[in-house]
Task: inverse folding
């Protein structure tokens, strides 16, 4: 029988917590410093050029923003689909979603050529731009999730948590559709320009968000001693496997479509066969290590039942996700533009050849700084707000939890 | 602007108009000079009455070389830092090669001034905009440097200012962290002149680049376009560019 869930702040600042917060704060500061140097010196210091106009910061920013949407999945399953076993995890899900979005947006904004003009971006809109819609979707996501968390945390408002959760669920689906459409609406580049980008990004968001949630949950369990039950981990890791399979499905549809269209075979083969680093990252990074390996780990009885197996699977899904976004963003730009179908183009460094790109330390620092900022926000949130339940033992969270089998000693005695 | 400045400006434009008229009347002077545009009186709004365009004749561009690039650079003050991948190239020469036949064509490539510009569609702040007369520009005051327009441009003719700029021209302000590209020499057009590249091309390879008002059936460009099969790069996108190419086949 499930007990009433009691949430609490994580008490005390042990050396481990202090070290974690300090480490994340240091990484965040280094990221900020990288951005400051890029801002003052100019982007020529980075690996970005007039061909690769979006670089590593965008890889991290898009990854974090997409993952933010997916991190809310656990709360949605609790509120929208009424699965009570997920209720103890719902607050962490909301806080993680907010933090990941904040980290991603920080990276995105600090990589702008004129980050100081953020107020312009917030006040001057071109409503035909999917980018402008996303500004509303992102800021709206903060408001929607904060209200949702309030409904969950304030006892008097609990009855509104289902409609608030449903609204947040719909909002995040639209948000990820918007993020995917940033690429899907780009008619100029053959690597994008596809309606499949939107649902593919939704599937990616579920997978990335689920993987990060699992890692954060297991870390919180270790740090705060929540007694995380195997039943909860089993449900979450199974979902991760399904989301990874869904991601692979959309990726397959995207590339098969491009392979089928004669005029797009060049870009399809660039990613799949002859794109050098992008081909390697696609197959080894994204497909094998980022999807197939974690799916095998979570679904194989030997590894799927162990915390280590699930943690490795989640970490691989995160790294594979970053590889996938790298291939989408950088690889998609590296492939040369087609000026006239069937004609080879040559001229300056901007034309006809695969664009060179090597991430600079400034870009990597900024990207990792965004991840660190997100994790720092989660760490601080669980310290000051009642985000985590006092226990996550299966008996406490699952109304259908069967008592554990009698210990072997009893069996032996009976024999 | 003071009253005196305004008067000076008006006087100068009047003289330019007169010069154009004289040139058209003088015997032996080609009609290409001074008759394609007329200065827009100060304070008058740009209207869709005009649709400025460029017709590039690919049968004559082989001789152009880097002439038009140098003219554009001198006119607009964009200079590089010997970093080709991040330096601006408001106009550049590219070669198209038919891999089946081996045939090549050299063409100047710059902002195509689309009627339906993807860069304008995607710009979140509206910094990328199209004037009523079809010239696509960037408002440097509200460009936040997101580079989405560069992602959206099918021709790779938008440039991000990667570092501090020097040697700016008063008529063409530039700024680190913003995006820029060919303005079709909008400052010259508003004064009744032709783009710098067109003037330079006229001297080097007459007829290689024709500038004018596509909406004016009597303009040289409209007449030339009316008789020709013209190519719009990435025509399948339906962008209806102002920059057209002929002599491709």
Result:
């Amino acid at each position: 029988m499930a007990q009433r869930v009691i949430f609490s702040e994580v008490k005390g600042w042990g050396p481990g917590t202090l070290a974690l917060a300090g480490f994340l704060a240091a990484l965040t500061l280094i990221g900020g410093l990288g951005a400051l140097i890029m801002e003052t010196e100019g982007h020529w210091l980075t690996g970005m050029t007039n061909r690769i106009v979006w670089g590593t910061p965008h890889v991290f920013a898009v990854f974090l923003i997409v993952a933010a949407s997916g991190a809310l999945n656990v709360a949605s399953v609790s509120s929208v689909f009424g699965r009570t076993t997920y209720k103890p995890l719902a607050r962490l899900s909301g806080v993680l979603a907010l933090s990941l979005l904040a980290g991603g947006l920080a990276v995105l904004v600090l990589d702008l050529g004129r980050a100081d003009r953020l107020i312009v971006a917030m006040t001057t809109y071109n409503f035909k731009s999917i980018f402008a819609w996303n500004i509303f979707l992102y800021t709206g996501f903060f408001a929607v999730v904060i209200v949702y968390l309030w409904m969950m945390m304030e006892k008097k408002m609990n009855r509104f948590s289902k409609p608030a959760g449903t609204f947040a669920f719909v909002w995040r689906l639209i948000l990820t559709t918007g993020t995917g459409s940033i690429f899907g609406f780009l008619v100029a580049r053959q690597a994008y320009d596809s309606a499949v980008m939107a649902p593919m990004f939704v599937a990616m968001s579920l997978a990335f968000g689920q993987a990060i949630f699992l890692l954060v949950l297991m870390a919180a369990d270790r740090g705060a001693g929540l007694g995380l039950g195997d039943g909860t981990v089993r449900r979450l890791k199974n979902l991760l496997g399904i989301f990874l399979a869904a991601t692979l499905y959309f990726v397959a549809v995207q590339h098969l479509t491009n392979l089928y269209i004669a005029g797009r075979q060049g870009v399809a083969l660039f990613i799949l066969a002859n794109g050098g680093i992008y081909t390697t990252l696609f197959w080894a990074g994204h497909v094998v290590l980022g999807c197939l390996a974690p799916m095998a780990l979570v679904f194989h009885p030997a590894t799927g039942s162990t915390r280590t197996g699930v943690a490795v699977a989640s970490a691989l899904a995160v790294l594979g996700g970053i590889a996938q976004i790298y291939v989408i963003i950088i690889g998609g730009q590296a492939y040369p533009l087609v000026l006239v179908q069937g004609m080879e183009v040559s001229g300056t460094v901007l034309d006809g050849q695969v664009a060179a790109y090597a991430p600079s330390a400034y870009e990597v620092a900024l990207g990792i700084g965004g991840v660190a900022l997100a994790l720092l926000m989660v760490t601080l949130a669980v310290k000051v707000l009642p985000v985590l339940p006092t226990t996550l033992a299966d008996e406490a969270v699952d109304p259908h939890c069967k008592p554990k089998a009698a210990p072997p000693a009893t069996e032996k005695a009976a024999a | 602007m003071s009253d005196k400045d305004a008067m000076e400006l008006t006087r100068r434009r009047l003289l330019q108009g007169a010069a154009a008229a004289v040139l058209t009347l003088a015997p032996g002077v080609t009609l290409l000079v001074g008759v394609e545009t007329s200065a827009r009186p100060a304070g008058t709004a740009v209207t869709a009455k005009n649709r400025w365009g460029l017709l590039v004749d690919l049968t004559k561009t082989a001789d152009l070389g880097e002439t038009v690039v140098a003219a554009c650079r001198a006119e607009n003050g964009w200079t590089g830092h010997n970093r080709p991948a991040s330096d601006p190239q408001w106009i550049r020469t590219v070669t198209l090669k038919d891999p089946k036949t081996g045939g090549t064509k050299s063409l100047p490539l710059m902002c195509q001034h689309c009627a339906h510009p993807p860069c304008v569609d995607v710009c979140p702040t509206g910094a990328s905009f199209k004037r009523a007369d079809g010239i696509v520009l960037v408002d440097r005051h509200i460009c936040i440097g997101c580079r989405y327009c560069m992602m959206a441009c099918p021709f790779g003719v938008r440039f991000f200012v990667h570092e501090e700029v020097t040697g700016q021209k008063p008529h063409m302000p530039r700024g680190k962290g913003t995006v820029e590209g060919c303005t079709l020499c909008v400052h010259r057009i508003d004064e009744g002149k032709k783009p710098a590249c067109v003037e330079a091309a006229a001297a080097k390879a007459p007829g290689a680049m024709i500038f004018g008002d596509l909406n004016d059936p009597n303009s040289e460009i409209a007449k030339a376009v009316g008789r020709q099969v013209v190519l719009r790069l990435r025509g399948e996108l339906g962008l209806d560019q102002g920059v057209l190419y002929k002599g491709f086949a």
Q: What stands out?
A: Residues 40 and 113 of chain A are 10 Å apart (CA to CA). Chain A touches chain B through 53 residues (CB under 8 Å).
